[in-house]
Design a protein that fits this description.
Structural class: alpha/beta
Order of helices and strands: EEEEEHEEEEHEEHE
Helix content: 25-40%
Strand order of the largest sheet: 6-7-8-10-12
Number of strands: 12
Largest sheet: 5 strands, mixed
Distance between the termini: 33 Å
Mean pLDDT: 79
Radius of gyration: 17 Å
Strand content: 25-35%
Length: 167
């Protein structure tokens, strides 16, 4: 793990388990190989170009975005599992008023996995488990793309899910 001399610029630093959170953004100091004499600068959703798989970089960017959302809603919960008839749905952020917020980074299509999330969110809305559902999309630092494809946008709207583009 990173040593005591790791410094943070660009925001509030909070230690969460073995990770640092910068304004809610996870900076896996050990993952990125920081030692006791290196700095970790808050770069928003930009992922350092290091030897990490694209899937892991996407996960990190998604976690950072979800952490930023959670900071806007005091006492909200992260990664809450809710039951649906199609199995569990892990909600990225659940606010105190039971609003569910899904975080997406980059361009998102209506593939089978995403459509399963849409259908589970629709069910949670219909059965009153949540008061509202919104999906927030942030631009990918890797691809420069953001938002749902036209088909996914139509599916979200039909399900009563709010779409928010954070750019």
């Amino acid at each position: 793990m990173a040593g005591a001399n790791v410094s943070v610029t660009g925001g509030v630093a909070i230690k969460q388990g073995e990770e640092f959170v910068l304004q809610g953004q996870e900076t896996g100091a050990a993952l990125f190989g920081f030692d006791a004499d290196h700095n970790a600068t808050n770069r928003g959703l930009e992922i350092p170009d290091i030897s990490v798989s694209q899937i892991r970089r996407n996960q990190i960017a998604g976690d950072r975005a979800s952490d930023e959302i959670a900071l806007r809603f005091p006492n909200s919960q992260r990664e809450v599992t809710m039951q649906t008839s199609d199995g569990p749905r892990r909600v990225d952020v659940l606010t105190t008023d039971r609003s569910a917020i899904e975080s997406k980074v980059g361009r998102t299509s209506a593939d089978a996995s995403t459509m399963r999330q849409v259908n589970k969110d629709r069910e949670l809305l219909e059965n009153g488990s949540v008061t509202s559902v919104s999906w927030e999309f942030r631009r990918s630092a890797q691809t420069g793309r953001v938002g749902p494809t036209p088909r996914l946008q139509a599916e979200l709207e039909a399900a009563g899910i709010e779409i928010r583009i954070v750019d």
